[in-house]
Amino acid sequence: MSAVIICPNCRQPVRPQSRNCEHCGIDLAVVVGIVEQQAMLPIKPPSGLPMAPEILVPRIGDYMIERNLLTPDELQQALKYQEECAQNGKPILLGRALLELGFTDQQTLDQIVTAQILELQNALAEANQSLKERVQERTRELQQALERLSELNILKTNFVANISHELRTPLTHIKGYLDLLSDGGLGPLTQAQSEALTVMKRAEARLERLIEDLIQFSLATRGELSLTLKKFHIQRLIKPIIERAAPKAQAQALTIHVNIAERLPPIQADEEKIGWVIAQLLDNALKFTPKGGEVIIQVAAEDGLVNVAVIDTGIGIPKERLNEIFEPFHQLDGSTTRRYPGTGLGLAMARRIIEAHGSQIRVDSEVGKGSRFEFTLPATDRDLP
Question: CA-to-CA distance for 177 and 172, rounded, in angstroms?
Answer without folding.
Answer: 9
